[in-house]
Fold:
Amino acid sequence: MIKAIFIFLLAGIAEIGGGYLIWKWLREEASGWLGLFGGIALVLYGIIATWQAFPDFGRVYAAYGGVFIIMSLFWGWLVDKKIPDTYDWIGGLVCLIGVFIILWPRN
Structure:
């Protein structure tokens, strides 16, 4: 389980970081280099996600969505200096509960 969590976090950093760099490039007119590095990070995200041991693509990506919501709140707080409010955290918690339900072992 520790390996799965590590892969979720690594993939989340690549996905959120890549999206953020492309956002900065296109929305805030930052250097095209940021867009290039963002694209590379997004490709790496796609590769990293395949390292999960879970056999089901749909479930893994649904679970990633919930984890990435929480990670995005922290990214916004730490990198963009936008403090999440109570509703952000409640919504993130609901998504995280969904992740546990999706990944719950089945017969």
